[in-house]
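Hi support team,

I've been running sequence recovery on a batch of backbones for a student project. Most finish fine, but this one hangs at about 90% for roughly twenty minutes before it completes. I'm not sure whether the input is malformed or the queue is just slow. I've pasted the structure tokens below so you can try to reproduce it. Let me know if you need the job ID as well.

Thanks,
M.K.
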């Protein structure tokens, strides 16, 4: 009974709502559902022919995993380090070669300069001592002239010339002395000088001691007698002077 009453009530309510609702006109229906016209058909065809380009980029290929990326990076890094090590080794080898070549060059330059100095010195020595043998041979002539002059007593040279013999002797003495002076001057011009160390200190590099005598009035080691004069050639001892030396008492 209750169900029947509720059903009747719902049906009556529905009829009232439908009766009270406004009826739709043809104009309103046209506004809600427009009829297709030729112009609208053209627009629809244009819309259907229009191309649509995607603005979203295509999906990228699937990337490798993180482990593979790290492995590739480590492989490339190891190759780079290997190349760097090879370049460093090559550079060190080149630097060593350069150092060796520089050392050889400096040694060659030093040897060449030493050779130049030695050659220059030898050439100069050849010029300075070219007449050494000839000068040594002339020393005998100089000694003979000195002996000849020493054999003329000083009294005969200073006294009045009473006889022709005395005059001849004095003339001979003067001639020999002049010859000796000219010869010594010529030898000196060519670098040959006399060593006459009378009264000097004994020098073993320039003097040759033939005997020693104690003399209280002279200092020990002093040359008091010259037995034979010496000579130097361009400051090199050609012949040492033979001398007598004072020894300690």
């Amino acid at each position: 009974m209750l169900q029947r009453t509720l059903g009747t009530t719902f049906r009556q309510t529905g009829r009232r709502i439908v009766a009270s609702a406004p009826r739709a006109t043809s104009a309103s229906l046209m506004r809600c559902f427009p009829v297709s016209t030729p112009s609208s058909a053209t627009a629809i065809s244009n819309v259907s022919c229009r191309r649509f380009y995607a603005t979203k980029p295509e999906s990228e290929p699937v990337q490798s995993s993180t482990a593979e990326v790290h492995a590739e990076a480590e492989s490339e890094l190891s190759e780079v380090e290997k190349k760097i090590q090879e370049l460093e080794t090559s550079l060190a080898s080149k630097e060593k070669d350069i150092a060796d070549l520089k050392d050889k060059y400096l040694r060659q330059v030093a040897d060449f300069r030493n050779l130049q100095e030695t050659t220059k010195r030898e050439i100069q020595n050849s010029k300075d001592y070219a007449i050494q043998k000839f000068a040594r041979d002339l020393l005998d002539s100089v000694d003979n002239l000195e002996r000849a002059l020493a054999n003329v007593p000083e009294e005969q040279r200073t006294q009045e010339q009473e006889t022709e013999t005395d005059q001849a002797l004095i003339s001979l003495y003067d001639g020999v002395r002049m010859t000796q002076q000219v010869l010594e001057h010529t030898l000196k011009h060519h670098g040959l000088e006399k060593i006459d160390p009378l009264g000097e200190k004994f020098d073993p590099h320039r003097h040759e001691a033939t005997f020693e005598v104690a003399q209280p009035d002279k200092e020990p080691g002093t040359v008091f007698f010259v037995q034979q004069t010496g000579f130097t050639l361009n400051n090199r001892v050609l012949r040492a002077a033979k001398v007598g030396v004072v020894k300690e008492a």
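--
Follow-up from support: It reproduced on our side and the slowdown came from queue contention, not your input. The longest strand covers residues 207-214. No action needed from you.
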